[in-house]
């Protein structure tokens, strides 16, 4: 059974978003992994004033 996932994500699964900018020279926290825990942690830290960088090899919250 093949599921239509087009309503789950506004991003086309065949063309993931890429980051083409430079990374900041300094940050307070680096999180490796953009899964639900990494993103939730980044959001909490950023809401508390921390500068956060999330590194993800694929799609954020994609696995």
* Tally of helical segments: 1
Q: What is the N-to-C succession of helices and strands?
A: EHE
Distance between the termini: 19 Å
Average pLDDT taken over every residue? 79
The level of helicity is 10-25%
Give unreliable regions as ranges: none
Largest sheet properties: 2 strands, parallel
Structural class: alpha+beta
| Rg over alpha carbons | 14 Å
Number of strands: 2
For the largest sheet, list the strands in their spatial order: 1-2
Which of globular, elongated, flat, extended, rod-shaped describes the shape?
flat
Instruction: Report the portion of residues in β strands.
Output: 5-15%
Distinctive features:
single chain, 63 residues, alpha+beta, two-stranded parallel ribbon, 1 helix, 2 strands, 13% strand, flat
Report on the structure:
The chain is α+β, with helices and mostly antiparallel strands and 63 residues long. The chain has a domain at 24-58. It has one helix at 36-47; strands at residues 29-32, 52-55. Strands 1-2 form a two-stranded parallel sheet. Helix 1 links the parallel strand 1 and strand 2.
